[in-house]
Amino acid sequence: MIRLVSFLFIALLAFSSNAMQHGGSTVSSAAGKGKNGTTCTIASLKCAKAPSASFGPKGKLWLAWVFGGHVYVQHSVDYGTTFSQPLSVNRIPEKIAARAENRAKIQLDNAGNIYISWTQSLNKPYTGNIRFSRSVDGGETFSQPITVNDDRQEISHRFDSMVVSDDGKVFISWLDKREQQAAKDKQQEYIGGALYYSYSDDQGKTFSKNINLSDNSCVCCRIAMALDNNNLPVIAWRDIYGNDAKNQIRDHSLITFSSALKPAKKIRLSNEQWKINGCPHHGPALDVDGNNIVHSTWFNDVSNEEQDGDHVLFYGNSSNAYKAMGFGQADKQSAHPYVVSIDHSALNQTVFLVWKEFDGKKTDILMKTSKDAGLSWSQNKVVSTTAGSSDHPLLVKNSKAVYLSWHTQDEGYRFSALSPTVLSADVK
Questions:
Q1: Residue 395 lies in a domain
Q2: Quick one: average pLDDT of 147-172?
Q3: What burial class does residue 134 get, using C-beta atoms within 10 Å of its C-beta: 0-12 exposed, 13-18 middle, 19+ buried?
Q4: Strand partners, 411
Q5: What DSSP string runs through 160-220?
Q6: Is residue 8 within a helix (H) or strand (E), and if so which, with residue range?
Q7: Is 253 domain-assigned?
Q8: What is the DSSP string of 335-367?
Q9: How far, in Å, CA of 107 to CA of 115, rounded?
Q10: Separation of alpha carbons 363 and 375, rounded Å
Q11: How many Å separate Cα 291 from the centre of its chain?
Q12: Is the whole model's pTM more than 0.85, yes or no?
């Protein structure tokens, strides 16, 4: 059954601090609103736009966020209780996309090298370049940013995603419209964009020639990336099925690699048959556990009768060909799920799912967990709440625990442990 989506998306737009627009060339200004509506004129975490988090060596937590045309980084040695002074990555300010679906990314390798990617917004609406910088001195200095996309037309190269291996191999994917532009120049039809990819085997000094992984992708939903047990990327994205521009099905696809430059044939990840002739600004998430099982979650605004429920969120994993488990409901405005797995042992792969719900007065972050790699699941638990606007919930892990990374208008940035304590008791 196809569902009317307008009410849900209007509500989601109203209660996200990074309104999920169709991506234009918005840039964070030097003055803006921070925590509790305070006016921001100096870069600080309370005024950050769309923070991303990642752990580095020795348990150090790193953040990347945007303010005033710069990407900033900070670190914490006490799990987010206090942070270092922010350091600018790009010396020269530029227009930077800083939204829930399209934010600056930060990753670290085992040597403590820091890798940053982001989307630079260009002057024309819905255009951009994929930018990259790195630090090889532990965050003291960062390299001059480079543009990863080798097509330099003023068109859309946006919505980057990045993963980095322990030894510093860098994998970046993004949504690209060069095929659409080429078709337009020939007065031909081309639906959507394309999923593009590039790879660095020298810790980000140089990148490979851009590779088109798949045509006809959705153009403004986040891409999910993780590394498998062979340190090769797994990528999931919202795809467009069918060749009828007026009757598009926007489900999800997934691709793996046999080597860094040899992608396998893509597979269909979701099959809810969501018919929508536009981008829903709602990308998937995925992670890979220690047994090389891929866990993924996604949003599709449909009623899945096979799951005997009125669900809009779904989870599947590679051990059962991504057979979908439905959860979350449209009347609760369930949205933006995220997934992470953590290895307690080869026989104990715990999976965490979080997502947002809005009851008309407040936004809750809900969580459910599986201690058997997705076979069975706990009851839903509320793990965080805010009355104001908020970012998407993100999950971050180190070798011992899983943490919720969440930015809210009223409370500011939150970084809170979800394991192991939350496995045995609700968080109030």
A1: yes
A2: 98
A3: buried
A4: none
A5: EEEEE-TT--EEEEEEE-HHHHHHHHTT----SEEEEEEEESSTTSS-PPPEEEEEEE-SS
A6: helix 6-14
A7: no
A8: EEEEEEEEEEETTEEEEEEEEEEE-SS-EEEEE
A9: 5
A10: 28
A11: 23
A12: yes
125-155 pLDDT tens trace: 999 999 999 999 999 999 999 999 999 999 9
Domain extent, residue 413, equals 1-20+282-428
| H helix intervals, 72-196 | 178-185
Confidence at residue 35, expressed as pLDDT on a 0 to 100 scale: 67
pLDDT in tens, 71-130: 999 999 999 999 999 999 999 999 999 999 999 999 999 999 999 999 999 999 999 999
Asked whether residue 9 is domain-assigned, the answer is yes
Has residue 120 been placed in a domain?
Answer: no
Contact between 198 and 209 under an 8 Å Cβ cutoff? The reply is yes
Number of domains in the chain: 1
Contacts of 261 (CB under 8 A, 6+ apart): 199, 208, 211
Asked if pLDDT for residue 409 goes beyond 60, the answer is yes
As beta bridge partners, residue 241 has 249
Token pair belonging to 229: 């047990």
User: How many angstroms separate the CA atoms of 389 and 387, rounded?
Assistant: 7
Written as six digits, the tokens of 371 are 């201690």
Q: What span, in angstroms and rounded, lies between the C-alpha atoms of 378 and 423? A: 9
- Each residue of 179-216: pLDDT tens digit? 999 999 999 999 999 999 999 999 999 999 999 999 99
Q: Using alpha carbons only, what angle is made at residue 361 by residues 22 and 23, rounded to the nearest 5 degrees?
A: 10
User: What CATH code is carried by the domain that includes residue 422?
Assistant: 2.120.10.10
